[in-house]
Amino acid sequence: MKGHPAILVSVTKGIEFETGETMSRILREHAPANRVAALSGPSFAREVALGIPTTVVCACESDGVAKTVQDFFTGRNFAFTAARTFLVSNTGGALKNIIAIGAGVSDGLGYGDNTKAGLVTRALSEMRRLGVACGAQAETFSGLSGLGDLMLTCFSKQSRNRDLGERLGRGETMAAIQASHPKLAEGYPTARSAYRLAREKNVPTPIIDEVHALLYEGKNPKQAVRDLISRAFKAED
């Protein structure tokens, strides 16, 4: 747009280890003269490329910027909703990758849909707690960038994060998985960042804690699930 700084659109999901910041917030800090928006939601790139109907959320602090981004990207099979929770809008998109590893572990151990449904439901509460502690609005996690993205990543066979967890559940080591898959799933580094962030914010995150123990402390998957059930499923939020 002539006369206005360029709009930068973040489509990266993660949490920086040192600062606990999401990628869109880091982008804004490094490009203060630009207007920044973030896209998040249940959207495997392959399905978008194939023209399969997809809905995501465009988060920014300006209705004008949101409309510009929506007009630029919206097509016959690619639709948007808008949100005004830019600073932490993609917290859900980052945290869900960790949960998907846990869901994959459940699959790899041969547990059924009952176990995974319970895990995902409790995980949403956990994501909400940590997100709110970082400044997000609780209702954000009931939408596309929270619940929608969480369901897609935890239940789809296309999910690299779920696949990583499944391989762990089947008994493979992290070293073997890394050797066979140089481009490791995003949830692996994010688990380390979120584990640290939860402690800084003094937020209980039993699912993130157990995934962190699996990935970085060599914890036995069956023991992790047993400990998780005893800790995380005691009471509803």
Describe this protein's structure.
By secondary structure, this protein is α/β, with parallel strands linked by helices. 55% of the residues lie in helices and 9% in strands. It contains eleven helices and four strands; from the N terminus they run E-H-E-H-E-H-E-H-H-H-H-H-H-H-H. Helix 3 links the parallel strand 3 (54-59) and strand 4 (78-83). The protein is globular.
Please sum up the structure shown.
It contains 11 helices and 4 strands, in the order βαβαβαβαααααααα.
Descriptive labels:
55% helix, 237 residues, 11 helices, alpha/beta, 4 strands, globular
Topology:
Layout lengths: L6 E4 L12 H8 L4 E6 L4 H5 L4 E6 L3 H11 L4 E6 L7 H18 L4 H21 L10 H12 L4 H10 L4 H7 L6 H15 L4 H11 L4 H12 L5
Parallel strand pairs: 1-2, 3-4
Antiparallel strand pairs: 2-3
The largest β sheet comes out as:
4 strands, mixed
Helix content: 40-55%
CA-CA gap between termini? 46 Å
Q: Compute the gyration radius: what is it?
A: 18 Å
The coarse overall form would be globular
Number of helices: 11
Give the beta-strand count. Answer: 4
Strand content: 5-15%
Q: What's the mean pLDDT score?
A: 85
Q: Which regions are unreliable across 5 or more consecutive residues at pLDDT < 50?
A: none
Q: Which strands sit side by side, in order, in the main sheet?
A: 1-2-3-4
Order of helices and strands: EHEHEHEHHHHHHHH
The computed structural class is alpha/beta
